[in-house]
Every structure is written in C-alpha cells, then in structure tokens.
Amino acid sequence: MNDPHLWWYISRASAMIAWALMTASVLWGILLSTRVMRRVDNPAWLQDLHGYLGGSSLVMVGLHMVSLMIDSWLSFTPSEVFVPFATAFKPLPVALGILAFYLLVAVQGSSLMLKRLPRKFWKGLHYASYAALLLISFHAGFTGTDVGTLWYKIVSIALISVAAIAVILRIVAGKRGGTPRRTDAAPSAAPLQSTLRTMVVASATAVADGVVGIRLELPDWGVLPIWQPGSHVTLHLPNGLQNQYSLCGDPANRHHYDIAVLRTGRSAGGSAWIHENLVPGMSLSVSGPMNHFELEPAADYLFIAGGIGITPIKAMIESLPAGRAWRLIYAGRSRQTMAFVAELEASHPEQVIVHASDENLGGLDLDSVLGGPALTAAAQVYCCGPESLMDAVAARVSADRMHLERFIPLERAARPATPIQVTCRKSRVEFTVTAEENLLDSLEAHGVPILGSCRKGICGTCEVRVVEGIPEHLDSILDDTEKDALGVMYPCVSRAQTPALVLNI
C-alpha cells in the first residue's frame, strides 16, 4: 500500500478485467439465446454464470472508477468520474466509458428485478449490453495509458474479435431462429389466432400401455419457438376441446415438439379423441409453449414422477449437465404402463429408481424416500403426477424446496362474489364485472385482447399483470405469494379482494 502508483496499477488491471468479463458475459448470453451449448446445457446454471460474469464486470468497473479518484497521480474528481464531459482529459473517450457504466448498471438492475418487470421490457433493456461493450471498447482504445504496447494490442484484438464473432453468431442464429418464444408476464395484445400455429402429426406411436407419443412439426419443417424444460403446449382439437400437454423432447431441437398422451376416462374426452382419431399426417392447431414449472438453479435435484407426470421431468433430466447430482423416483402401476421407463433406466441406471406397484405390493414409501439419501440437504424437489402423490410429497417437503405441476385444479374456498370495477390500462377500457360474471368472460366480452384455454386455473394462458388492486387467487398454478411478488393473476377463475382492479392489458 506504500507504492505511490498502487492505485494506478489497480485502475489499469480492473479496467482490463472488466473489459474481459463484459465480453465473456455478452458471449455467454449469446450462447444462452442461441443454445449453441445445448449438449451440456442446464439453462439455470448457464443463466447464473451469465449473471455472475455481468455482475463481476460491473464490480470491476466500479473498482476502476474508485481507483481513478484515489490515485494521487491521476487524481480524478467524483464529478469527472461520474459526469460525462466533466473532465478535460480526453473528454469524449472518458464520456463513452461513463455512459457504458450507466448502461451496465441498468442491465444488472433489470436482471435483479426480472420477476417484477415485463419480460419484453427487460429483454429490450438487455440489448444495451451490446452498446455497453461497444462503448467500453472505444473507451479502452482511446484513453488507456498502455495503448500502443504489444500486450495491449494483443488483448484488445482478442477481446474485440471475440465480441464481433459473438454478435455475428447472434445475428445468424436470429435469422434462422424463427419467431422467438413469448415470455411476457402479461399476454400480448395479439388475438388468439395470431398465436396459434398449424402443426402436422409427424408420428404417433405407443410408448407404453395406454400412452401414445406424438411428434408435431410445422408443415414446412420450419423452426419452432424456444422452450425450456417444464413447458407445455395446448392442442386445439377438432372436437372443440383444448388440452395441455407437457413437452418431453429435447429443448435443443427446434424442428419438432414431442408430447405423450395418456388415455384416461376421467378427462372431458380430449385424450380419448387423440387415441382414437390422431394419425400421422393430420393437422392440428397448437398454441404455446408456456412454462409455470421451470427448472431453477440447484446443486442437487430429487425428481418424483407418477405415471404420465414423467413427461416434464424427462425433459428436465435431459437438460442437466453430466456432472449435476440428481435422483428420479418414478412410480406407476406397472412397467408396461410407464412411459419411457426402459429408456430412463438404460441411460441413468444409478440415478433412476422405478417403483412399479405390481412389483412392490407395499406401495411407495415416501417417508423412506424423503428421509433417505435421495433427498439431500441441497436438493430441490420436483414432483408431477396424480394429485394424491403430489399432495403427499408436498406435505413432507418444505415449500421453499417444493415444485409441483398440477393437471387438476385445487378446490379453493372463495369469498362471496361481489362486483368488480375493472380498468384495462393499455386497452383503455373500463367496465363492471357483476357478482354472477366470470372475469375472463367479461374481459373477452369487452374486446380486451386476452387468451384463455383451460378455464380451470391450471394452464396459465390467461395470465395478466395487476397494476392496482388485490386479486383473489383461486387458481392452481403458482403459490399465491409468488403470484403477488410477480404481480400477476389468472382471471379464468380468480376475482378480486378489492372493489376495483387495474390490469396492464
């Protein structure tokens, strides 16, 4: 600390490290969006690393700016460091660096508030990373005291080349990628017809007794929207029914969707129609994908699947990198009725535990499973299957570790219905929903652009952002606390605790 030039050295080193980290962050973000690393891709892990790189670059920029003020030789004032064009020393290049700093702050701040911002706004702001990287490159090229030295030229050329290649990769992938996946927190103003796509049944084969595996493709074999494990699509069947099915294929394959449909007598008839009528070459209307069962970052996972509940779990397992710790407990009536059981056992013999009722007459002992080595202290639990199984698991696992996807809505007690004064901010429509009316039906009747599908509070298609008022959540999609934190509601079944609601639609 006695070296009079110590802070000068720190300012140089921190600036170069920040430049390298920012380049790596942008490159990693492009790898995420283009799925170039799909063979080792765990979306949550990649997103975390992308965030750490961006955050670290901002920390290094901050250290660089502080060291400029502390160093006795450079002796920058706070205004010269934080206000563009306040310094007489190379005012334009310095101003570019200051603007890059504020862009980085905006990008990182928006990432911290991701769940509270409309996804479209966040995504648009995130593109400022490219501008920040460009500004940093110009700033470094015209203000650095080492400009002209061989090592500086080598590092600069390497970083600029990597950034240029990454941007070219993103442009090329964007042109090939087709329509991007919609991830807005609230539905767009587009009518339902514009979100539907006609898809062709490429194949329909039995994957277990009573379960048919279906592959859907675009008629021109075009590129489909990106999806993450846990996503589902909605099939709009010719008999008027709309059924949701989890995607169980490889998220990296953008040319087809794979689903598996169990024939059940308890449904409204959608599964029976599919089993009796669906044949290769048939066209279907499909909407989605949507995801309310996302795979979150974790060091370890315990997956519990019952019957056809294996479909989203299978996609999650296949998205994990080879070194990630996980276990699967897969329960069903018999191996003959359990889809993908042979494939999963063959691929992961040490991690998959199959519990077939006709082989284990004592039934699945959840207390032993959840009290044994399969559930580590770090494990997040993902469960999908019959309601009885999910309720039993949820009763034994703390809410902060429990992740469920329901096929059947929960029975939830509702307060006596009262009229609601509804204001739709974007549509500039105001109306009253009577106690006897359904909120989603009223929105549709007043021409508000909103999508509805299951109308039972389980698919999430009708999600809308709440600006003012307190919703009365009666759906079965997310925890009420999570919906409140996100500021969303599902009007197909939910109403309001307050006399008025203002919706961002």
UniProtKB/TrEMBL annotation:
GO terms for molecular function: 2 iron, 2 sulfur cluster binding; metal ion binding; oxidoreductase activity. InterPro entries: 2Fe-2S_ferredoxin-like_sf (IPR036010), 2Fe-2S_ferredoxin-type (IPR001041), 2Fe2S_fd_BS (IPR006058), Beta-grasp_dom_sf (IPR012675), FAD-bd_FR_type (IPR017927), FNR_nucleotide-bd (IPR039261), MRET (IPR050415), OxRdtase_FAD/NAD-bd (IPR001433). The chain crosses the membrane at residues 6-31, 52-74, 94-113, 125-144, 150-172. Residues 194-296 form the FAD-binding FR-type domain. Residues 418-505 form the 2Fe-2S ferredoxin-type domain. It comes from the Bacteria. PROSITE patterns: 2FE2S_FER_1, 2FE2S_FER_2, FAD_FR. This is 2Fe-2S iron-sulfur cluster binding domain-containing protein. It comes from Cryobacterium flavum.
